[in-house]
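Hi support team,

I submitted a single chain yesterday and got back a structure, but I'm not sure I'm reading the token output correctly. Could someone confirm the output below corresponds to the sequence I sent? I've pasted both exactly as they appear in my results page.

Thanks,
R.
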Amino acid sequence: MQFPQECDADFFAELTAETYADYEDAGQTKRGWIRVKGRANEALDIAVGARALAYHFGVAEMEPADWVRLRADRMAPPSAGDLFAPASVGAAIAEADDVEATVIAVEDSTDDSATESDPMAALLASLRRQAAQDGITRR
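Hi R., thanks for writing in. Yes, this is the structure output for that exact sequence:
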């Protein structure tokens, strides 16, 4: 594992806050991880969870070329018509006084033709229809 230079002694103390040792449990000697008394172990918990996710998603085996490709994909501008593109979201919010007013307006609307030109309104209308089918009502 590699760590940034900004990690201080407290971070590494948390990272090494557990030891693999023998301990007594109900009269039996067992071997396992034991937290050192008086030391927090949050950094260790987070590091273990991050490492598990890295293996689960294949990140642990990525080569430098894979990282370059991933960065290029993530930094590419969104394609035209992307429902969640910042411009679409910003335009939808700018047209209303607040987000709740937009949701209420879409929920109260019975004219679905208005949603064809507004992707956010179309999404909200779709969610409203699905909620109605599932028997979920607005409070």
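A quick pointer for reading it: Confidence is low (pLDDT under 50) at residues 92-110. Let us know if anything else looks off.

Best,
Support desk
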